[in-house]
């Protein structure tokens, strides 16, 4: 069975993410420490002191994109390194939004140091050029968006899960209009911990500044398949424009995963801090077996249990494969 590493994006970060795995797994802690030194060298900030600030609660808003995006990148890549060191090797990667940076690092397109610089630069560009924005996860069918002028004209679709769940984004004024309408209609929604309306017109003013940064880099050849939630297919090379598209265009996770070769049997491993991608896959009707989907880090202090389940599943598969070939 092959492994595909899945990386979530903005809005899935929170204070103390991965703290239980950090306490129980020395390898993960070591990787975090080493990566945090790289972050410090590039940005001058101590990212672990920020993420694991004892004065913060998990429920506190962690939306400063200059810090939260780097924190998410660091946690996800530290976990990827931990799995690889345990001989759980990815055969392919897929990232949502910011998660495409982590996927690109794992796939060899750039170093972690370069990714930190690009993510930090994105935060600076958004802070400098964009008005504050927001994102809402809406728990209803997406048809209500297309059939309502308030939602349609005030916000943009950031992500359609193809079920009873979608995400909208926009500037504060537009999101406020959307919230008012959704409350009037008794539609459940939840604000995401972000400072801007990613995947919407809210970030368009940062386009020129950030693409100048992105286009100053040449990306290396990928050494494994990277399934993009922008192009919805396996991509062969990356350029600066691609990473602008990961921030601006809608997330098409389901379409990207449907493009994976169905003749292969994959183990879907969610390396984000909430298990969001794993949950989306589990509730996707008529798709891959739930037994092949593995979250690891979650906010519920069960990360070590989840990690052990994954390791056991991999080991059992290896034993079964060996027995089959004997």
UniProtKB/TrEMBL annotation:
<dbReference type="GO" id="GO:0004314">
    <property type="term" value="F:[acyl-carrier-protein] S-malonyltransferase activity"/>
</dbReference>
<keyword id="KW-0012">Acyltransferase</keyword>
<dbReference type="InterPro" id="IPR001227">
    <property type="entry name" value="Ac_transferase_dom_sf"/>
</dbReference>
<dbReference type="InterPro" id="IPR050444">
    <property type="entry name" value="Polyketide_Synthase"/>
</dbReference>
<keyword id="KW-0808">Transferase</keyword>
<protein>
    <submittedName>
        <fullName>Malonyl CoA-acyl carrier protein transacylase</fullName>
        <ecNumber>2.3.1.39</ecNumber>
    </submittedName>
</protein>
<dbReference type="InterPro" id="IPR016035">
    <property type="entry name" value="Acyl_Trfase/lysoPLipase"/>
</dbReference>
<feature type="domain" description="Malonyl-CoA:ACP transacylase (MAT)">
    <location>
        <begin position="6"/>
        <end position="287"/>
    </location>
</feature>
<dbReference type="InterPro" id="IPR014043">
    <property type="entry name" value="Acyl_transferase_dom"/>
</dbReference>
<dbReference type="Pfam" id="PF00698">
    <property type="entry name" value="Acyl_transf_1"/>
</dbReference>
